[in-house]
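Hi F.,

I've been meaning to write this up properly since the lab meeting, where we talked about keeping a consistent format for the predictions we share between groups. The idea is simple: the sequence comes first, exactly as it goes in, then the structure tokens exactly as they come out, then a line or two of notes. No screenshots and no reformatting. I'm using this chain as the first example so we have something concrete to point to.
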Amino acid sequence: MIKKLRIKLILLLTLILSLVLAGVLFAVNIFNYNSVTDVSYSRLNRIMSSLSAPTGYFGDYFGSTDKYYYYDERGYEDNDIYIVFVGTQGSITNIAAQNDSGYSYDDIARLTRQVLSESFKRGRINDLIYIVKEFDYGSFGTSYTVAFMDNRSIVQSTSTMLFNSLIIFVFGIAVIAVVSFLISASIVKPVEEAFNKQKQFISDASHELKTPIAVISANSDILQEDIGDNKWLGYIRSETDRMSRLINSLLTLTRLEMSSDKSNMHKLDICNAIMEVTMPFESVAFEKGVTLFCDLLDEEIMVNGNEEQLKQVVAILTDNAIKHCYEGGTVNVDARRVKNKCIISVSNQGEPIPFEIRDKIFERFFRADESRSREENRYGLGLAIAKQIVENHHGSISVKCDDGTTTFEVII
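Output, unedited:
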């Protein structure tokens, strides 16, 4: 349980911190992109603000003497830049360009018409960013000046930033995973200590209770020999037997939780083990009016495990299936191999287990019906023991209810 808790904690911490890191890197990239884009638009705006509405020929705005009038030395003097004047009649009257290696004037004219048709004052098109400036001449109409600038520097800058961010994110996840692993150890340690103390207490208390229970039981036997049958002695014997079974179940569960001994693991025929366990239940099923099916005589499925513990799992599930089966119903115990896994299933026809408690039934001391559990001397430990045994075998146990049939499935 502690191991699973720590794994969940590591995954949770890694996920949360990774999302935070991803959010920060995303924000940085957006900020970087917006900053670079704003600088480019600002540069175009300065160019546009220096222009007045021309009435005819533009002139060479990018001549050698005026080049740095429009551009300071920040790396943009090498960009492809185009300025297009559109007259009041909608015709392009002039195109001025700097470093016009990327687009022909015909391309720029086509892009200008496309930009004006979209009615945006600024934006991106192909590898260019653009700004549109209007000049209103009243009844004479409106002319436009459109400035384009090469956008590849922005793309390259943001792409480099994004690539670096991805590298940082990958290394960041690795660092976060290591940090989460170290943090989880300190967080889980108090829980682990408390859990171990609890298990040790249960084990010690159970051992200590065995002696007085044995003394009470022995004395009740002696009294019965002296005074004969007596209902009060019967109550004492019944409760001591009940306490004895409870203590033994607690000791079994505690031992399974604390034990990591693999020495009793060996290859065994699980079908043969299941047959040995289920045969004694035939009489129990008969008395309950239930039909028990278990036909595995011709099967042979080899698994690696502790034979006695796996038999105990089958016994617990079979006993529960018979107790909760409708009178006249059937209980089926089966085993099959799927790829390299063995699946043991125990099903019965009975009242379905409510969906909201299907995970809880494997918890210790959980009983869906307290009154019936008391009458049948059940303590809510059987399925907890079965689950612990299965987990010690690195397997899983689950329950499903479908069409009036409840099936417990063990995968090892």
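Notes:
The first helix runs from residue 2 to 49.
The chain is about 55% helix and 20% strand.

If this format works for you, I'll send the rest the same way.

G.
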